[in-house]
Amino acid sequence: MRGNLVVGAVLVGLTVLAALVSFVWTPHDPTLVDAAHRLAPPGGDYLLGTDKFGRDTLSQLMVGARTTLYVGIVAVGIAALVGTPLGMVAGMTPHGWLSELIMRVNDLVFAFPALLLAVMLGAVYGAGTLTAMIAIGIATVPAFARIARAATMQVMVTDYILAARAAGRRRTAIAVRHVLPNIGSMLIVQASVSFAIAILAEAALSFLGFGTRPPTPSWGRMLQEAQELLFSTPRLALWPGLAIALAVLGFNLLGDGLRDHLDPKLRRIRAER
Amino acid sequence: MIWYLVRRAAVLLASTAAAGVVVFAFMALLPGDPAEVALGVNATPEALEALRRQFGTDRPALAQFLDWVGGLVTGDFGTSYVTSSPIGPQIAERFGVTLTLVLGGMAIALVVAVPAGTFAAVHHRNPLGALISAFSQVGIAVPAFLAGILLVFVFAVQAQALPSGGYVPFAEDPSLWLRSLLLPWLSLGLVQGAVLTRYVRSAVLDVMREDYLRTARAKGRGRMGALWRHGLRNAAIPVVTVLGLQLATLLIGAVVVERVFVIPGLGDLLLNGVAQRDLLLVQGVVMMLVVAVLLVNFVVDLAYAVLDPRLR
Amino acid sequence: MRRIGIWAALGALLLSAACGGGGADSAADRSGGATGSQPSTLAVGFVAEPANLDFTATEGAAIPQALLVNVYEGLVKLDQDGKIQPLLAEKWDVSADRKTYTFTLRKGVTFTNGAPFTADDVVFSIDRVKSDWKLKIKTQMDVVDKVEKKDDSTAVVTLKRPSNGWLYSMATRLGAMFSRTGVADLANKPVGTGPYQLGSWKRGDSIHLDANAKYWGAQPQVSRITLKYFKDATAMNNALLTGGIDVISAVQAPESLAQFADPNRFQVVEGTTNGEVVLSMNNARPPFNDKKVRQAVRHAIDHKALLDTAWAGRGQLIGGMVPPTDPWYEDRTGDYPYDVAKAKALLGGKTYNVKLRIPNLPYAVATAQVVKSQLAQVGITAEIDPLEFPARWLDVVFKQGDYDMSIINHVEPRDMGIFADKSYYFHYDNPAYGELLASADQGSEQQQVDDLRAAAKLLSDDAAADWLFLFPNLIVAKKSVATGLPKNAIAESFDFTALTKQ
Questions:
Q1: pLDDT value at residue B298
Q2: Is any Cβ of chain A less than 8 angstroms from the Cβ of B4?
Q3: Which residues of chain C have pLDDT under 50?
Q4: Which of A87, B96, B228, B301 has the most Cβ atoms closer than 10 angstroms to its Cβ?
């Protein structure tokens, strides 16, 4: 379905655009406390209104988009850089002891809850965006390792790899020249899906108080702060909630669309194993 | 099959042992002295000393580790630093609560996802199927705690139909138990159901393209009949995998839902334990969670082997 | 004057510590006239669950809040106005040199384990503070020279020197009376003389207190109190809205009060506490070892705007370390009015980068964002670093003193003494201040008031810290909770004995 790709790309594009623009311009200073304009209604000077500190919601959303992307990039980056090579090694020697070891350790890491990692890292190094991202990243490694392994195993039995192996090519050369390009599209799809999961994880951690530090705007923390005003000023929860949902939707749709677009055959390999 | 079972069991044991070491090492990294947290920083040095001796935290790490492992093997989780009561029963009780929450959420997810996913797959070329797919996409994008907050707002605060939170044990009052769990189950189940719907749909779609299904249909079976007789078993393999993965996610997702609905589950115990530096308790809870996830993986692997003999 | 008591910091976690206080003035007023009627129950929401029930060995306000006055009683207790009233002592005489206190004990009092309460228990309990208590606050009892039993219903306490603060301490947990045969398992089985006894405890959820049928005074009207614990302010609000609880003991999200605006369903009680929300500055290291920089900070903060935005305008601006319920209170908000130009002048055009290391508690996170924004206007860039409370905050800020600024609610009653100890994390060092406090503790009542006023002024003039606001006592209850909700929360306990329900 081409629609997925388009809608996904538009939603992700909007997020990226908001983040980029926020570097050079926001309607107001997103962290400026202004008692005179607290809880200003939408419209006029404040397009989406202000929160209880008198901070402009739109400006916060724009800078919050930056936090969201930062979250996704760091977490997915860690997961992809660590998980992919491990998965490829395991996939190229599917019945060796190394493969077995990698996958068992992988299972073990998978068994450790991301939340626990975040709480522990927060206790050791102080809670913050970076510690939360590292925790989410580590917890996402197994997903990448599994997908890389499964994809590698499929690629390894194709004719051209068999030919390359018969020609006596070294394994590392095969891995870099032949395997990686062929599993790349799978990894991009996985990255897109993991990105969405990372956004949700950051929101949950912020809700529990282990996420982005104040006053840096973050959609998760905006949502958490809006809770006490849910009755009187529900729009404060509406905007960040909508932003999270749309960004997650965007990345998921983008992932689906890419999957369909890049290689219809890949639909047959399921993301889970 | 037996050989396969033995090998998997050995891996499970080795992983558990490795997990024990990792968990203990992890706790050793945690800054903050349990005795200090219990007494406050202006506690007298003698009192701190005495309390450390009482906790046993003044001994070498190896001795503490061996003690802990020795206890675990005999089912003894030790005594909490903070509550001075045995940890095992506490974990057992909380684990029961969280498991109830997770399994209920999972049941709702399955009840939603299997028909919805199958329907969406069978009707993947018409608008109704697309609508279900769209719904599941939106469902995935909503954070579970937001779903929880909204459910409370609508059903508890506005409609006053269900309690906003709290947990009543089944033994105390079955009907209150059910009422107290309905909203938490829904908020876990709907979001997970949305995720699962996608996987069911794609699994069923895959199966529908298989030759044996075409053959079955060619032999005159209806589409649904053919799916029922031949397809579900095959579609179940990926779904079971995802279920296993989700069960693990749910154990963690439950922490947030426990917070929203004030349910005294394992997540609550864990966060409290970390805050109070009740290290033995935290170790116990984490070990329990890790082993639970490893066990789920083990069962999933076995389920594979049963569903698809080629994998043995 | 009390000595340095550090559980103030811990208490701040349990904001509701700021909540409590004596309801009725004497046992006679307490009856509510419900003896013999069918049992009534009441559920009260709190923010932090006690880790165990032993307040002789565990810090934190949650335990005395639940148990003091309700389960454990002292010889004396504090009333709503901060005055000391008799409880297990019918009366007491003070010798002319103000060093000997003779307590006449109430007769016919028994502990919940069946043992009678006598002067032996008084000797046991006060001696036990020195011998067995594990908390630093026990030093408040160092002034006691000896405790003796004269007869079964008379106990005599001799002090080493006159002390205005000692009897006040006896109204806190330090004065709780324990049974000689009831201290085996304090963590789980409290034994006291109070109107309630521990019914059951569902860890992670709630504590039940049941009326003590053998109580010496009038039975409380509510026969079963449930203390329900919430970690999340919204969850607690929802519980009250849906009938899960009857009372919110301390509102954690003041903006949410709008939900309880319907006077036919809810009532809101608002008063004061002993909690000064202090913006502390590390006097021991640059830039805040420079008095001018500290003064600049005090001028740079718009306290009214801060209270309005961060805490919905609930609370009181005090400008000093004394809550309004203490006899020596004076409004010190005029000392450093909001004046950006003056603050800039004091800084002399310099800019600073400082670490604002706060506990990860709702009020601290909210106020820190306002402080940061306001300090930025005068050229001080504060980086907010929320630390896990209590463990990390206590370690980094409190113990190691590795911070420039912090924000914490110091909830301990009469806690001016914490500034007199230069090793305390403020590292404020002015010997004249300590001398004023010492003289206040030993002097006459009038001298005490004069000295403490002078001390409070000195502290403010030196800008030892900034006082953001006085934490409010905010209670929301169902309309049906007729009486007994304390307006001011100035004692360590939440007194359930005066609560009545329609």
A1: 85
A2: no
A3: 1-37
A4: A87
Residue B220's pLDDT band, with cuts at 50, 70 and 90, is low
Lowest mean pLDDT among A177-181, B31-35, C160-164: B31-35
First vs last C-alpha separation in chain A: 23
Q: Is B27 exposed, middle or buried (0-12, 13-18, 19+ CB in 10 A)?
A: buried
Who's near B311: CB < 8 A, 6+ residues apart?
Answer: B304, B305
Dihedral sign of CA atoms A24, A28, A31, A32 in order: positive
* Beta-carbon separation of C258 and A232 below 8 A: yes
C278: enclosing H helix or E strand = strand C266-281
- Are B259 and C235 a contacting pair at CB < 8 A? yes
Q: List the single residue in B84, B163, B259 with the smallest CB-CB distance to C242.
A: B163
- pLDDT one-digit tens code per residue, C125-145: 999 999 988 877 888 899 999
Q: Could you report the predicted ipTM of this complex, rounded to two decimals?
A: 0.83
Which of these, C463, C136, C86, lies nearest to C289 by C-alpha position? C463
Over range B264-281, report the average pLDDT. Answer: 83
Contact (CB, 8 A) for C474 and C270: yes
The overall average pLDDT reported for chain B is 82
pLDDT attached to residue B43: 63
Mean pLDDT computed over B211-236: 68
Token output for C431: 């010997």
Position A104 scores a pLDDT of 85
Chain B hits for A117, CB-CB cut-off 8 Å, are none
Instruction: Give contacts of B84 with chain C, Cβ < 8 Å.
Output: 52, 187-188
Interface contacts A/C by beta carbons within 8 Å: 72
Contacts of B32 in chain A (CB under 8 A): 123
Which are the contacts of B185, defined by CB distance < 8 A and separation ≥ 6? B101, B104, B105, B107, B108
> Rounded distance, CA A94 to CA A90, Å?
6
Q: In sequence order, what DSSP letters do the residues of C91-122 get, joined into one string?
A: EEEE-TTS-EEEEEEPSS-B-TTSPBP-HHHH
Q: Tokens standing for B251?
A: 């154990």
Angle between helices B232-261 and C233-241 (to 10 degrees): 90
- pLDDT > 70 fraction of chain A, expressed in percent and rounded: 95
* Sequence-separated contacts (24+) of C106-110 with Cβ below 8 Å: C106/C153, C106/C216, C107/C153, C108/C216, C109/C193, C109/C216, C110/C193, C110/C214, C110/C216
Number of C-beta neighbours around residue A153 at 10 A = 18
User: B9 and chain A: CB distance < 8 Å anywhere?
Assistant: no
Q: Do C391 and A123 touch (CB under 8 A)?
A: yes
pLDDT score of C34: 40
Torsions phi, psi of C304, nearest 5?
A: -65, -50
Whether C177 contacts C122, CB under 8 Å: yes
| Interface test with chain A among C309, C358, C381, by most A beta carbons within 10 Å | C309
Of the candidate ranges A139-153, A201-215, C212-226, the one whose mean pLDDT is the lowest: A201-215
Close Cβ partners of A73 (under 8 Å, ≥ 6 residues apart): none
Which amino acid would we find at residue B60? P
Q: Identify any residues that bridge with C21 across adjacent strands, giving them in sequence order.
A: C494
Q: Identify whether the C-beta of residue C270 lies closer than 8 Å to the C-beta of residue C314.
A: yes
Give, in order, the Cα–Cα distances in Å from C429 to each of C287, C292, C381, C435.
Answer: 16, 15, 26, 12
pLDDT at C277: 96
Q: Is C112 in contact with C189 (CB distance < 8 Å)?
A: no
- Is residue A199 scored above 70 in pLDDT? yes
Q: How far is CA A228 from CA A264, B204, C234, in A?
A: 47, 44, 6
Strands (E) across chain B are located at none
Decide: C355 and C282 in contact? Cβ < 8 Å: no
CA B308, CA B231: separation in Å to the nearest integer? 13
Model pTM score: 0.85
